[in-house]
Amino acid sequence: MSLDVPVIETDRLILRAPRLSDHAAFCAYFAEPRSKWNGGPLGPREVEGMITSAAGGWALRGYGLWFVTLKGDETAIGFSGIFHPFDWPEPELGYGIAAEYEGKGIAFEASLAARKAAADHFDLNGLPSFIAPDNARSQALALRMGAIREAEITLRDRIATVYRHPNTEAF
C-alpha cells in the first residue's frame, strides 16, 4: 500500500510522509523531557509505534501529520499537521520541532504550511490546537499564528486549552 501524502514545500522546509528511516531522529526527539508536550518521553519501540500511527492516520483518514525536514536534508526535525486520534473531539493542528531548531521560525513556517494544506487539500479549516496550560512556547506559537484562545477541555484525563486557528481565507 502506498500513501497519497501531498508534499508541501516552503522557503526552507519540506513537509512529507512519515518514513521508518525517521526512527533515529524521533528517538532523539522523544528522549528529551520536553517531548512530554507530545506524549513523550518515549522509548524506541514507542517511537516506532508513533511513526506507524502517523502513517496509519494517512492510510485510514486520508490526512495526518507531515514530517518536517530542511530542504536538501532528509533528516526529520519535527512534525506538523493534522492529529486526530479516535478519542479527540475533532482533528487538531499539532506540531513539534526538535530543540536545536527552536527559535528559528521553523515551527511557525511548518505549521502555517500544514494549516494551509489542511484547508486546501482536505477542507479542514478553523482547526484547534489543544495545548497544555503550562506549555508557554506552544501557546505563543498558536497566538503568533492568529489562533484565539477558546476554552479548557479535558483530554485523556488532562486539561488542555483550545486555541482555534482562523480560516485560511482570512489571509
What does this structure look like?
The structure is a single chain. This protein is an alpha+beta fold. Helices cover 31% and strands 26% of the residues. The chain is built from four helices and eight strands, in the order E-E-H-H-E-E-E-H-E-H-E-E. It has helices spanning 23-31, 44-61, 106-122, 136-144, and strands at 8-9, 13-16, 65-70, 76-83, 92-97, 128-131, 148-155, 158-164. The strands form two sheets. The protein has a five-stranded antiparallel β-sheet with strand order 1-2-3-4-5, with helices on both faces. A three-stranded antiparallel β-sheet has the order 6-8-7, covered by helices on one side. Helix 1 packs across helix 2 (44-61). The mean pLDDT is 95.
Structural features:
8 strands, 31% helix, 5-stranded antiparallel beta sheet, globular, 171 residues, 4 helices, alpha+beta
Molecular shape? globular
Give the H and E element order. Answer: EEHHEEEHEHEE
Taking all residues together, what is the mean pLDDT?
95
- Cα end-to-end separation: 36 Å
Structural category is: alpha+beta
The major beta sheet can be summarized as: 5 strands, antiparallel
Low-confidence stretches: none
Percent helix: 25-40%
Strand content: 25-35%
Explain the layout of strands and helices:
Layout: E1 8-9, E2 13-16, H1 23-31, H2 44-61, E3 65-70, E4 76-83, E5 92-97, H3 106-122, E6 128-131, H4 136-144, E7 148-155, E8 158-164
